[in-house]
Design brief:
The chain is an alpha+beta fold. It has seven helices and 16 strands. The chain has helices at 11-19, 39-54, 60-71, 137-148, 191-199, 209-213, 242-253, and strands at 2-4, 7-8, 24-30, 35-36, 78-85, 101-108, 117-123, 153-157, 163-166, 170-174, 180-183, 202-205, 217-222, 226-233, 236-237, 258-259. The chain is globular. The model has no long low-confidence stretch (mean pLDDT 95).
Length: 260
Amino acid sequence: MMTLNGRPVSADDLLPLALVNMGHFTTMRVDADGRVRGLSRHLERLVKDCRIVWGAELDRERVRDYARQCLDGRSGPCTVRVTVYDPGVDLGRPADADHPRILVSVRGAGEFPTTPLRVMSVPYERDLPEVKHVGLFGSLHARGMAQTAGFDDALFVGRDGFVSEGSTWNVGFVDDSGTVIWPQAPVLPGVTMALLQRHHDHRVADVSLTAAKAAVAAFATNTSIGVRPVAAVDDVELPGEEEVLRLLRESYLAIPGETL
């Protein structure tokens, strides 16, 4: 199911998104009870990013209405993606685009994956990292490079030598005291990361690649994967502190969802 401002979307509507690729989005997991962990934060992200990308205000209640419309009649957990873009955007005059619309798409969602990830460090910095934008070429190219090399995904390292984030996820590291360390770097402020920061001891600090490989444990996190262990960084196996990771998963799953 896919709608644009509440109406069935056409191929012509999607052409500007495919060919110009300018917009921003958020992805939410809607559990079987119709609730979303961090719903308010997802809506805040859309409003904030709409101001940055389009210089326009976004009505969060319209977003909720369109999402509920797309979910009508569906059962079981679903993943809802809300993309904000202007079908009238022009490659030569992007500044003229000022009528963003709301594209909602829905797909099924399974259980949170628990298989540990093996990641390859890749020198890369996302454009405008504080915005969850649709410009995913660099991130997905890095993921593809890692997979070609035999890994599951890519871990980004900035020009300053510090770890930032994964291709489509935030990363956290656990030190020998059991404290979670989040990289102090320009990253997407992930909703799942923010929720975990409220419910678990943590600190934010620079994380060098050497420090990342010396961590007691590491994990990737976003709405689609929850808390997923990282088993190795490059050729270094991480010990994996199962108790801490278990507590992180349990604390995340215990966070009450908000009604969409």
